[in-house]
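Hi P.,

Sorry for the delay on this. The queue was packed all week, but I finally got your sequence through. Input first:
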Amino acid sequence: MRWFSFEIAAIDPFISSLPIEQQQEHKQQLCEKLFGQVRVIEDKPSEVRGLDPETIKSVTNPITEAIKAAKG
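Then the structure:
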């Protein structure tokens, strides 16, 4: 978060050479991007991303069978 505070503090000096109207417009756009966002982290993803269950079975079944054979 330290970098974020430095970036926020640098906005005014960075846009100081622009006309006041443009400064206000840039600040408004920045505020909309930074503070108007909905940030939700799902507890459980709604769908499996990556490998599908059949692919997982095709990888794990041979390993499981090899372990069973080694024990038996």
